[in-house]
Amino acid sequence: MENTNTRQQKIAKQIQRDIAEIIQREYSALLRGILVTVTTVRVSVDLAYAKIYVSVFPSEKAEAVMAALEENTRALRGELGVKVGKQLRIVPE
Fold it and tell me: Which of 11, 26, 39, 59 has a CA-to-CA distance to 18 between 20 and 30 Å?
């Protein structure tokens, strides 16, 4: 049985698209020659938390890319807030 409801799925897809666009736009200089793909987004039932899964190619660069993304988590969440602020009351952490 599926644990996520339709609203969670819609929000997860929207966050996936928006985060991919933000990473592509904001980190293009850092990511020269590196392919970063947002593969999956899982949103909690209360929509307060989102777990974002990212794929990095070539995999040798994965550690550096993940460190950069984790370091800029607040900025990414802020950018996401600008994009989905009208649709969501709480921007997922």
Answer: 59
